[in-house]
Structures are given as C-alpha cells and as structure tokens.
Amino acid sequence: MALKLFSKFLAVGILNTIVGISLMYSLYYLGFSYWWATFLGNGVGACVSFGLNRSFTFNSEASVRKTILPFFLVIGVCYVLAYSISIGVLKQILSIVPLIPLNHVEDFAILVGAGIYTVLNFIGQRQFVFMR
C-alpha cells in the first residue's frame, strides 16, 4: 500500500516538478536570487501538487478548507529544510572537494533540494495532511 501510494505521489511529483523546476531555473536565469526563484517555483508547483495529491494520490474526502493550511505549512517546512540543507551541504562538500566551480553551486543545490524536498513532503503530507 505504501509503495503504491508513494508511486502515485511520485507521478504527481514529476508533473509538479516539471512545472516548478522549469519556473525556478527560468527565474534564476532571468536574474532572480536563488531564494526567490526556488520560492516562487516551489509555490506554483505546490498549487499543482495540492489539487492532484488531494484528489488522485490520497483520495482525500477532507474539505479543502480543512487541508489547505496544513498542506502549505508542510510545504513551507519542507521547503526551508530541503533548500537550506542542499545549499549548505553542497557548499561544505565543494569547499573540501572542488568538483564544480563555486559559482555553480546554486544550480546543483536546486536539484539536490528538489530530491530532499520530495521525500520530506511525502512524509509530511501523508502524516499530517491527508491522513487515512
């Protein structure tokens, strides 16, 4: 059951990731800061995620009113944790082992952060928002 649920979550995640990361990189290369680009891209992806996860992944019958605030609280916590961890860890690793130029750390941090975010978000949504 958990694997099937996580598979559905990943399918929805692929769609909202395409939307969110496309926007993140577009904004970042248009001159937005790392934090603004990831925040706005993640926000748009989160809106896609809410609708699809509520109806498709978790088949929640709870009202939008009841689930929207916890959903975005989980999103916010996951966002701060994931993207702070990714940028911090990559900067530490690259200061010891310079695999890529430091001016490209944020490019990779966006991708690493997306992976961390996905795992944290699944746990949060399942445990606190769309409980069965």
From TrEMBL:
List localization entries: Membrane
The regions listed as transmembrane in this protein's record are 9-28, 34-56, 68-88, 108-124
Cross-referenced Pfam families: GtrA_DPMS_TM
Which keywords does this chain's UniProt record carry?
Answer: Membrane, Transmembrane, Transmembrane helix
Q: Which residues form the GtrA/DPMS transmembrane domain?
A: 8-130
How does this protein sit in the membrane? Answer: Multi-pass membrane protein
What protein family does this chain belong to?
Belongs to the GtrA family.
State what protein this is by name: GtrA family protein
